[in-house]
Amino acid sequence: MTTTSVRPGARSSADWITIEQATFMPNRRPPMVIERGQGSRVWDVEGREYLDMIAGIAVVSLGHSSPVVQRALAEQSARLIHISNLWYSIPQLELAQLLMDHSPFDKVFFCNSGAEANEAALKLARKWGKRNRDGAYALITAEHAFHGRTLATVTATGKEAYTRSFTPLPEGFVQIPFNDMDALERAVDATTAGVFLEPIQGEAGVHVATQSYLRDVQDFCRDKGLLFVLDEVQTGVGRLGTLWGFERWGVEPDIMTLAKGLGGGVPIGAVLAKDPAAVFEPGDHGSTFGGNPLMCAVAHAVVTYILENDVLGNVNRVGAVLKQGLEALVGTAPLVESVRGEGLLLAIELREEKAPDVARLGIEEGVLLNATGPTTIRMAPPLTLSAAEAEEAIDKFQRAIAKV
Ligand SMILES: Cc1ncc(COP(=O)(O)O)c(C=O)c1O
Question: What's the CATH superfamily of 13-65+310-403?
């Protein structure tokens, strides 16, 4: 039991952080407490304003406290918040229909997060392998992938730092270098059920699959009778300027997972599958909260808004402004080595291991940035970011690196 209680009198960031230190299993975060947000901006409890270039890790797709999200929450919460997967509910069915109408998939399973969506996809792949590939169960994943933190998804992620305290890990995961077709061909054996990749490795620092790689993986999977599974938790729902990331590569996976931007800030995940891969039967999988009416109503409103308001056009236009503006810093500003990414999922590679310093100094300059590693800054702002805000972000980023 802890002796510190959350006091209504707590006002400053320091006050709140004292409470955090007494009550939380530790996490590392900068010493300020965000109190409210609007559009692409947030404010801390001291009233300082920040341009949010990471949007809750690529989640707040329509901006903070979007009226679209607020309206859906208000209307649906007055009607029905939760009913469980024992019963049908209208928002769930409407969202399922919307996703099927705008994708090449046939069936969906709803859950609450990216890890859960991937966990469900892994179970689907195993069941599919049992039925269709003589009991094959293994998934080939990529080095530096990120698929989540449950035991199976962290094993698929394969990063030793994330797994070492939690062994023994589940069997059936084989890791190969990303963008390396020869390695994939060598890795396949009788136990392989499928290949499980991100089109852009976001958490690893925005490493983009080459055009030929994803096409070749798709063709190889079709040729060998393997499942082609894409984790679009970060890249899906408009982030790359297409509704689904895979459209940029001209491929179609058998299974796709979503979360993050789908709910525009509320927790929801989904697995979408083509009919042959949609092998769950009653009792195979489930989630009490998955597909609850409140989250589904919000996700439906978010996806509808994206489709009807040229949000994808905005991502392409503003993404180009941001990328070109950042590229102009290569060779002119200190530290900046290169820029990569698509749409509004970009990374700046630094020449020295200063990314955490840049993110810290960004806070002083009034911009939220994310260091995904010692040399990499990621930007994944709201999809509704304006061109003027993109210019402002470049300016603030430039001032942060000048201070390092
Ligand atoms: C590609 C990808 N997959 C899965 C996840 C895990 O999602 P969640 O944190 O919602 O479990 C993430 C989170 O960053 C991700 O980027």
Answer: Aspartate Aminotransferase, domain 1 (3.90.1150.10)
